[in-house]
Amino acid sequence: MAEIVIRDRAAFGGIAASMDREGQRNMSEKSAVKIAIFAFDGITMFHLSVPQMVFDEVARLGLADWETAVFSGDGSPVRTAEGYEISGIAGPQTASDADIVVIPSWHRDGRPAGAELRQLLVSEHARGTTVAGLCLGTFPIADAGLLTGRRVVTHWRAFELLAERHADLCVDESVLYIDDDDVFTSAGTASGLDACLHLVRARLGAAAANQVARNLVIAPHRDGGQAQYIQRPLPTRTEDDPIAKILAWALNRLGEDLSVERLAREAHMISRSFVRLFKSSTGTTPAAWVRYRRLDEARRLLESTDRSIDRIAADCGFGSATTFRQNFAEAFRTTPTDYRRQFAAKR
């Protein structure tokens, strides 16, 4: 096997250390966030690098003073699934002052988490730290008892095992990630990118998340869940794809009636066939897709404009401010007014 020893976090995490001093001074006035990422023997390089790449990009772009640190159970080097040895990483104490603790993956066999890791997760969660499990990283968090009674997601191949071991939680295959405020879980592999971008979006706003996504050349938001991958790959869209056309058409008309009937009519299809094709293509229903897009646009307007709540509700097609507030609170666990107040300070 090939072997490479990576002796410091900067070498593995990217070029964050090469930021110019002016950029660092600009960030000093912004709130600092520390993210502790757990590494273990057998982790893949991809899983370990995903949260570092996304969160370190926040700092590289000067958006906020975010710092990642990799730690293992005892501070010892770890050997990745590819055979590389990573040294120079921290011990578990690095999680004690973290704002977010990330379990970026877990062993493929889903083995129960050890007592020390379970206790660390429980202690940090009790301290107010956000705990995130990406892909199979959901397993240690569930083993720690932090997901009891919650809706969760993991890699689709592990749905059955997770449900069997923890019958007290609801495994949802319809989403790419679930933000439950203090605990966060994501679907398989590349969905970790979606999850980490969402955490950036939740803390810094849509504009910051879009900037990070643009620099990393990844989609700022993907629709649907894993069901589309369980049965078959997402179809390649062409200029003749009626779903691709209707998505573009609807995005420019969020304030209008976008019922299934109207969308199907615009696509020149009967409603039943349209819904079936839409779901197979996007992984979600037309109604859910429209709702997500309207909420995304509402967040953008709350972050970047002074339009009234009533005006935003109308512009985004919610019909009334009451309906808008209900949908917004359900999706983001806050009110539009409080959300605007949170991001007003960041302008």
TrEMBL record:
<dbReference type="InterPro" id="IPR009057">
    <property type="entry name" value="Homeodomain-like_sf"/>
</dbReference>
<dbReference type="Pfam" id="PF12833">
    <property type="entry name" value="HTH_18"/>
</dbReference>
<dbReference type="Pfam" id="PF01965">
    <property type="entry name" value="DJ-1_PfpI"/>
</dbReference>
<dbReference type="InterPro" id="IPR018062">
    <property type="entry name" value="HTH_AraC-typ_CS"/>
</dbReference>
<keyword id="KW-0238">DNA-binding</keyword>
<dbReference type="InterPro" id="IPR002818">
    <property type="entry name" value="DJ-1/PfpI"/>
</dbReference>
<keyword id="KW-0804">Transcription</keyword>
<feature type="domain" description="HTH araC/xylS-type">
    <location>
        <begin position="244"/>
        <end position="342"/>
    </location>
</feature>
<dbReference type="InterPro" id="IPR018060">
    <property type="entry name" value="HTH_AraC"/>
</dbReference>
<protein>
    <submittedName>
        <fullName>Helix-turn-helix domain-containing protein</fullName>
    </submittedName>
</protein>
<dbReference type="InterPro" id="IPR052158">
    <property type="entry name" value="INH-QAR"/>
</dbReference>
<keyword id="KW-0805">Transcription regulation</keyword>
<dbReference type="InterPro" id="IPR029062">
    <property type="entry name" value="Class_I_gatase-like"/>
</dbReference>
